[in-house]
Design a protein that fits this description.
mainly alpha, 2 strands, two-stranded antiparallel ribbon
Length: 146
């Protein structure tokens, strides 16, 4: 009985994980497409407004995606097995949605990186970029000491 409950739990996680993957990917790409493209020449306040708007829209989108996915019934025949559905961690989809929403919104990622670089430049008067896995700032400081 416990073995079958474990199998049903895995199958339920797979079903909802795949549903969240597809729904979050479509919603994430659509949301990224709905907002202005990344432009490093824009003023900081404009980029910040775009990021805030996209993040607030993302909150609403997560609620809608979760509602849509949870409306899909479990496709497993569970009658007579003693398995209680809708209690697996993947039923809520946090992990899958987080990964897919982040990966599918390249404009948002670039804008957040731009804001981060501008803040870093403002605070430290230095640029923060990764080059070959190391911070450029660290390389610049090391070369100044030589």
């Amino acid at each position: 009985m416990k073995e079958s409950a474990g199998i049903y739990s895995i199958l339920e996680s797979l079903q909802y994980g795949l549903l969240y993957l597809v729904a979050a990917f479509i919603a994430g790409v659509s949301l990224d497409f709905a907002f202005p493209i990344y432009d490093p020449q824009k003023p900081t306040n404009k980029v910040f407004q775009e990021v805030m708007g996209q993040c607030l829209s993302l909150v609403v989108t997560v609620i809608l995606v979760r509602y849509c996915v949870k409306s899909v019934p479990l496709l497993l025949p569970i009658k007579g097995t003693g398995y209680v559905p809708y209690h697996t961690a993947e039923y809520n989809g946090e992990m899958m949605m987080s990964f897919i929403f982040i990966a599918s919104q390249m404009n948002l990622i670039n804008k957040v990186n731009l804001l981060s670089n501008r803040l870093y430049m403002f605070l430290f008067k230095d640029e923060r970029k990764l080059i070959d896995g190391e911070h450029k700032r660290m390389q610049v400081r090391a070369s100044k000491h030589l």
